[in-house]
Structures are given as structure tokens and as C-alpha cells.
Amino acid sequence: MNKYLQRVALATVIASTLSCMKTPDLEDEFTPATAEQVTTSLVDSWGSVSPLTMLKGDFLLQETDQQIDTMNPRLVLQEGTTISEIAETAEKYEYTFLYQTAVITGDNSSQSTRKQYRTVSKGNDLTAQSAGLKTLKSVLAKKSDVTTKADDYELTLGFERVVMLANACVMTDDLQKYCKEELKLDSCEIKCGNLTSVTEVRPAPDLIKKQPNCGGIPNCELNVKKVTFDWSILMKTGTATEKQKVTYSISVTQDLPFFGRVLDYCNRGLVQIPDSSKVLVTVCNRLTNFQRTGSQ
């Protein structure tokens, strides 16, 4: 799991943001937050729940939209994920996910379906919230025999997004190596700040509302904890320092099982448009349906 999360963190935090995002003003108001404070907020939002609450037949539908400045958001990706098989061994449970994607470009949609895998050790069922990040990291593992094409989308469970953000504020040796060897910098420094955690009540997504008895959700309302923070990196070459920033937010409800707890995950920053200026872009992945049709 650790190697997988490192790849997710590096790919998400570096490759898809560092090359194109930059803060408009280095003097923006910034209240520092430690990695421990960010982690504590995320662990608290996730709560206590076992991954073994994922059942065969459970289904998620997620949509990702992209918004440029004040323009209307544009749908760019749909993801349907079904737990198709659960196999038990002496030491673990092996989960098979049927992962369907539709990549939307203009009026065209490119669709694919394939299997993805996770394993849960019987000794790491995350039933205690006090387990903290160390246990969070070790709960799920991705099978190493999965291979995909370079342009394939990878299944990312909501739980894995929480762990990725919990690791985002830590300057690891791998990240420092990436800065020096790939970005050709003298060094990098990560800072996080402007951390907020708010509690709110939201109506269930429309497709859940249409289910009998609102899918078992009381009053068809979800109690939500939303964590937001700014992630910044200072990239140093000689006496010059360039700063780039991404604002992350994640909304979690403890009213849904492990599989469907993350309601939305967003990042926002300035993106360089080819042959043009930088524009503010917000990308959000949202849960639009969770269907508990599963069984053991």
C-alpha cells in the first residue's frame, strides 16, 4: 500500500499540478498548519469504519467536472465501480472491482471497462478511530499484478484520497529526489496552511433520493465534514525561489459505509493555458450515486 500511495501522491500532487499551477501572489494570507494537524482533521472526518463493510454488488457512480474561472463546470469523466467479487483466504480478503469509465471530450465519449483489485488484511479492519494514520495507510493494498496502459484511468477509492491528502504535507525523500532529478531543482520545501474543518448537513445526491427509502438514509440528509487546506511548494534554484499552490478540499460523510464515504474531492489552482495566460481551474470528483445492493 505504501508504494502505491507514494505513486498516487507523486502523480497527483506533482505531475498533474506542479508543472502548471502557480499562486498569483506570494504574499497571500497564510496560516501555517502542520502535517499532524492536517492528518488529524482528515482522520476525524473519516471516523471509524471497517473496510469489510464493502459488500459484493455495492455500486458507486462518480462524476468529475472541470470549471475554468467563472464559466459553468464541464463534465469530463464518469466512473462506475461495482464490487464484483470478494474472495477470502486465511489471512486476507481479496476484492475485485469492475471499473467502468467514460472520458468525455466535447460531444465524444471514450468508454472502457476492466477489473481492479484491493486486498484487506484480517488484522487491519480499521474498527478503531484511534488507530490513526499508520493504520489508515496499511488497511488496503493494491495487487501488484495489475498492469494498465499509460492512458488508462486508475480506480481511486475515497479512502485512498483521504490517505493521499494526509501524506501531502510531508516532505519525503522520494519527493525531494523527484525535485532534484526530474525537475532539476536544488531543493523543494512543502508548506500547508489555511486549514479548515467544518460540519454541515447536505441533502443526499439526487440518484440516492430516488432509491426506496432514500437508500436507508434518515430524512434523506447526510452529516458531512469538509476539510480544506492550501498545499504549497517552494522550488529553489540558487537564490531564486518559485512558489506554487493548490487548494484541496474533501467532504466525507460517516452516514455511508466505507465504500461510499467521500462525497467530493476537489483541487483548485492557476493553470497555464498554451499560448495564453494562466486561468483559475477547479476540478471536482463527486459521488452521484451509492447503491447498497451487496451481500456477503
| Gyration radius, in Å | 19 Å
Mean pLDDT equals 83
| Approximate shape | globular
Strand content: 35-45%
| Helical fraction | 10-25%
- Written as H for each helix and E for each strand, in order along the chain, the element string is HEHEEEEHEHHEHEEEE
Main beta-sheet annotation: 11 strands, antiparallel
Q: For the terminal residues, how far apart are their CA atoms? A: 24 Å
* Helix/strand/pairing category: alpha+beta
Description:
19% of the residues lie in helices and 44% in strands. It has helices at residues 2-15, 35-46, 132-138, 158-168, 173-181, 206-209; strands at 32-33, 59-68, 74-88, 92-105, 108-121, 140-141, 187-203, 221-237, 240-253, 262-272, 278-291. It has an eleven-stranded antiparallel β-sheet with strand order 1-7-8-9-10-11-2-3-4-5-6. The two termini are 24 Å apart.
Feature tags:
alpha+beta, disordered N terminus, 296 residues, eleven-stranded antiparallel sheet, 6 helices, single chain
Summarize the structure.
The chain is α+β, with helices and mostly antiparallel strands and 296 residues long. The chain is built from 6 helices and 11 strands. A hairpin with a 5-residue loop joins strand 10 and strand 11.
